[in-house]
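Holo model, A1CAB. Inputs:
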Amino acid sequence: MFQTIGVCGTGNMGRAIVKGLVAAKAIAADHIYLYNIHREKAEALAQETGAVVVDTPEELARRSQGLIMAVKPNIMESALETVRETLSTKSVLISIAAGVSLEKLAFYTGPETKIVRVMPNTPAMVGEGMASVSPNINVSEAETADVVAIFSSFGKAVVTDEKLIDAVCGLSGSGPAYVYMFIEALADGAVREGMPRQMAYTFAAQTVLGAAKMVLETGRHPGALKDDVCSPGGTTIEAVKTLEESGFRAATMNAVIASAEKNKSL
Ligand SMILES: NC(=O)C1=CN([C@@H]2O[C@H](COP(=O)(O)OP(=O)(O)OC[C@H]3O[C@@H](n4cnc5c(N)ncnc54)[C@H](OP(=O)(O)O)[C@@H]3O)[C@@H](O)[C@H]2O)C=CC1
Ligand SMILES: O=C(O)[C@@H]1CCC=N1
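Output:
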């Protein structure tokens, strides 16, 4: 396991990873180094977590056995420019950027660089992340296992062929946003029926959590689990009919495909 981790870019995803790592005690907080172009953003996260702010990207690269690049795709090239020279040949560069291929990353850093492309998601912050892990040819199996261990410490992580990363982005990378919209809509429906709003969010979120756990823990087909809820002539099948009439499944599939297509085009 890496003894030191650096995080370049402490925005939404960088924060989620650091908070997940610290909560999981996967690595000592004072062995997690942070750099953000706007230092106050790194300072704020350091205050919350005990991680350590460094002054420059060069220092970040020098100190980190695993360096997580958590900046926007369009600035990845310039951000890598600043760490490339000081990154140890033994260190592993981990990019979480949408749409930036292993090939492109190696073009920016050099052909010898050990690079792993990871597609995480923000529920990392609460220990329920989902991440794909795609190493390049310079990364050993043991190093890949180290990256999986890091991302598994705050959720699930699976080694995945890079060609699946667009699908991963559309599903689990962007997916939390669709689920929040679903939760909000569920709650709005209940509010329409007179339920207080805060109570509606609790009922909606716990329903999504419980249903997700049923899929993961029973291993049963989601359609069979749905059938268990639909009593013949009952309330649920009435609701299911309206969802089908509204194109719920197609809308959801199209959302996953739209995000995947965007990931390809970035
Ligand atoms: N958000 C998500 O759910 C997911 C995001 N990702 C990927 O993670 C990456 C980051 O996304 P996200 O966290 O949402 O974006 P954010 O904009 O929230 O975070 C990026 C952070 O990087 C800072 N920054 C900008 N330039 C530099 C630089 N040169 N060096 C260091 N820090 C810099 C930004 O500062 P400032 O804002 O002050 O400019 C900002 O705080 C993206 O590549 C995205 O594709 C992947 C999976 C999920
Ligand atoms: O919206 C984005 O581009 C990033 C990548 C996956 C989730 N958020």
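Residues 197-218 form the longest helix (22 residues). Residues 8-14, 35-38, 41, 70-73, 75, 79, 96-98, 119-122, 173 surround NDP (ligand 1) (CB under 6 Å).
Archived with the compound record.
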